[in-house]
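can u do me a favor
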């Protein structure tokens, strides 16, 4: 239901359904991931970071989660942390041009 609401352009309602799903089972990595993406879109970056990290804890092999976490870290000027997770995203999926690009930007923002 959360995904359908998100796709219909109702992200606030999607957050409610994702949260309800997690009340039933905190171990749903995809729900944490989808909730994080929705929170990020709603500019609740700190909460999004929490859910990306939980999604990674539950499923450490999904490169997209690391990539999105890196983007969230950049929004809040946590560039060193962004670099680490962009690198992990690239390790998991070496054909990820946006991750390479954002990794370079994060290094640039740190003056490296």
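np, heres the sequence
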């Amino acid at each position: 239901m959360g995904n359908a609401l998100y796709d219909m352009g109702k992200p606030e309602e999607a957050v409610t359904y994702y949260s309800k799903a997690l009340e039933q089972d905190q171990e749903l990595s995809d729900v944490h991931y989808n909730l994080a993406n929705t929170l990020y879109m709603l500019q609740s970056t700190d909460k999004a970071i929490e859910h990306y990290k939980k999604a990674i804890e539950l499923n450490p092999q999904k490169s997209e989660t690391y990539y999105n976490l890196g983007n969230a870290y950049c929004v809040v000027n946590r560039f060193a942390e962004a670099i680490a997770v962009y690198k992990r995203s690239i390790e998991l999926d070496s054909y990820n041009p946006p991750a390479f690009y954002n990794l370079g930007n994060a290094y640039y923002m740190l003056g490296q």
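Residues 11-24 form the longest helix (14 residues). hope that helps!!
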